[in-house]
Amino acid sequence: MKKQFSALTLASVLTAGALTLAGQAVAEELWDPHLRGVDEGLAAGALPPPGVYGVLDNYWISYTVHDQTGKSLNDKSLSALVEVPIVLWATGIKILGADYAVALAQPFDYGVVGSGFGAISGGSGNFGAYNTIVIPGQLAWTFGDFHVKAGLSVYLDDASSTMIDLVKGHKLNGGMPTGNGYSTIQPDLGLSWLHDGWNLSANLYLAVPIDATTTRGYHYQSGNEFAADYTVAKTLDRWTVGVGFHQQNQLNADRLNGYSVANSTVSNYGVGPLIGYQFDGISVMLEWNHNLYAENDVAGDLFNVRFVVPFY
Description:
Elements: E1 18-19, E2 31-32, E3 51-66, E4 72-95, E5 98-105, E6 108-113, E7 126-129, E8 133-143, E9 146-155, H1 163-167, E10 184-195, E11 198-209, E12 213-215, E13 218-221, E14 225-236, E15 239-250, E16 255-256, E17 259-260, E18 267-278, E19 283-295, E20 297-310
Antiparallel strand pairs: 1-2, 3-4, 3-20, 4-5, 4-6, 5-8, 6-7, 8-9, 9-10, 10-11, 11-14, 12-13, 13-16, 14-15, 15-18, 16-17, 18-19, 19-20
């Protein structure tokens, strides 16, 4: 990798999916499009040198539901393991003076809910595929130590199980649906200042559902959502240490059959340490975040271990 870039910058072009569980309506979706905090530790505005790269995020959460006042409802808990394999192609092509890359991700997840969720609890959990994530383009510009990257992520409506399954009475073996029953487009913006081993970065996302979940007379439209992952880190030789921050804020309420859903506008904020190491040919980064505050959302602790390998 080039001087300020480590292989850990590669996954910054990608997003996955994260859990939101408010439980206000029978058709409510359970997943946020962006997996909160997953891009912490990365150079948000930069792309790697031309080549094909593999990324694997191993992401685990332990959450409880928080109500509209921020209070934790300890009887309503959930845990999940999310595996996010990614392939990135940095093409070497220049467009408008920017480096161009494309990527594809197919997350898989296993989730278990606690007894407080009644009909969907009481089993061993549900495993399956999340919505496929296609990134048709990312453009990255370099202005000295300052880097800017813009792109688009598309979440396809192809998850192996969704809220529709629960509405139809499928209990999913005591787990939660593995994805959303609608498609989403997500413009992304990455900003980085990289100098003398320092990485100050912000990954910004705006998720906009382009259709709705419709079944058995229910028409459920999820709200638009802003998310961000922030990084303050320092690289010394092969080691990187720092702090990551994340936030998610829903911009408008969900709608059920045209009516606003009460207490469906979610917010959450979290922070925690990160540490990475560059081996010969593979990069590893570990991160932990604890939620400081959450409203109409799930919150608790998240852990992520990321591996990045250049295929060529």
